[in-house]
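for the writeup, i need someone to sanity check this before i put it in the appendix. the sequnce is what the collaborator sent (i think, or maybe the updated version? ugh). structure was predicted straight from it, no edits. if anything looks off just tell me and ill rerun, i have time this weekend
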Amino acid sequence: MDENFMIYAGALLAIVICFIIIKKVASCLIRTVVGLVVLAIIAYVYYMYMR
Protein backbone atom coordinates (compact mmCIF):
# COMPACT_ATOMS: atom_id res chain seq x y z
CA MET A 1 0.00 0.00 0.00
CA ASP A 2 2.76 2.47 0.90
CA GLU A 3 4.66 1.65 -2.26
CA ASN A 4 1.68 2.54 -4.48
CA PHE A 5 1.11 5.74 -2.52
CA MET A 6 4.73 6.78 -3.03
CA ILE A 7 4.47 6.10 -6.77
CA TYR A 8 1.30 8.21 -7.04
CA ALA A 9 2.81 10.98 -4.90
CA GLY A 10 5.94 11.01 -7.07
CA ALA A 11 3.87 11.13 -10.26
CA LEU A 12 1.77 13.98 -8.87
CA LEU A 13 4.90 15.87 -7.85
CA ALA A 14 6.41 15.36 -11.32
CA ILE A 15 3.22 16.68 -12.97
CA VAL A 16 3.20 19.77 -10.77
CA ILE A 17 6.89 20.47 -11.42
CA CYS A 18 6.42 20.02 -15.19
CA PHE A 19 3.44 22.39 -15.14
CA ILE A 20 5.46 25.04 -13.30
CA ILE A 21 8.44 24.68 -15.66
CA ILE A 22 6.23 24.82 -18.77
CA LYS A 23 4.44 27.88 -17.40
CA LYS A 24 7.75 29.68 -16.79
CA VAL A 25 9.13 28.77 -20.22
CA ALA A 26 5.90 29.69 -21.98
CA SER A 27 5.68 33.06 -20.25
CA CYS A 28 9.29 33.78 -21.21
CA LEU A 29 8.58 32.71 -24.78
CA ILE A 30 5.46 34.90 -24.93
CA ARG A 31 7.45 37.88 -23.64
CA THR A 32 10.12 37.24 -26.28
CA VAL A 33 7.55 37.05 -29.08
CA VAL A 34 5.81 40.24 -27.91
CA GLY A 35 9.17 41.99 -27.68
CA LEU A 36 10.08 40.95 -31.22
CA VAL A 37 6.70 42.13 -32.53
CA VAL A 38 7.12 45.52 -30.84
CA LEU A 39 10.65 45.78 -32.23
CA ALA A 40 9.37 44.97 -35.74
CA ILE A 41 6.64 47.62 -35.44
CA ILE A 42 9.18 50.22 -34.30
CA ALA A 43 11.50 49.31 -37.19
CA TYR A 44 8.60 49.54 -39.66
CA VAL A 45 7.55 52.96 -38.37
CA TYR A 46 11.15 54.16 -38.47
CA TYR A 47 11.75 53.08 -42.06
CA MET A 48 8.36 54.30 -43.33
CA TYR A 49 8.30 57.74 -41.70
CA MET A 50 11.93 58.67 -41.02
CA ARG A 51 13.33 58.32 -44.54
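The CA atoms of residues 17 and 23 lie 10 Å apart. The mean pLDDT is 81.
thx in advance!!
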